[in-house]
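Q: What would this chain look like folded?
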Amino acid sequence: MAPGTRVAQVRFLVEALAQQALPDGWETWAPDAQRRLLRALMNVWEPEPLPPDVLAVQDALLAAETAERGVVDAADLPVTAAEPRVALWRGDITRLRVDAIVNAANSALLGCRAPGHSCIDNAIHSAAGVQLRVECAEVMAARGRPEPVGTATCTGGHNLPAAHVLHTVGPTVTGPLTAAHEELLAASYRSCLRLAEEWGLASVALCCVSTGVFRFPRDRAAEIAVGTVRAHLTGSRLTKVVFDVYEPADLELYRALLGPDRPAG
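A: My prediction, written as structure tokens:
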């Protein structure tokens, strides 16, 4: 019988996903510590076939957690006065119901792999469930090469409110920012927008690509992102593009570039 309580679900999944020895006494840890252990195991998990009952328990747990965080429908977000198809929202991108969210991935396309890391790649894989890593692994095995910088790959969203995930690898900045870095970042955004249209998607939520551990300067990254979207929307079939930001500083940067929201009515 499948476990019915949250604590039982977490313990069941910890044991099912453990591919190495578990810490001694983990069963006595507080529930929140056991949940962090489960996320860490999901983060380092090597893709392999899992029994349907394991996936069913994981899906039930993630669905309940998504409901608790609250789903935000991108269609309900107010657009900016200057760009009638563009919205700006500060929050957790894994809460957005939209045709696709963008993931700032690495070239392996298999998630961050650092247990409990706070990056968007880790957050998206953790909320989507292990099925996302399995799909990414299948894509990468078929290609037999890393994902190039500036390109994008589309997968399903699995347990996310978003129907799809657009994975893109942005440039890593070591030393002074160069024109090559800027062009590669613009290429990442262009690739995501074009891929969304190729897949017949109408709405996309973009994250702040490369501005975390890849060290792209936030102010210039925002300028490139907004400029690239504005250029693409001319003649585009996309109906809504959401700039999703998480840090207050990014909200200020994008608000300065996009202006206020359009008044209701």
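The two ends are 52 Å apart (CA to CA).
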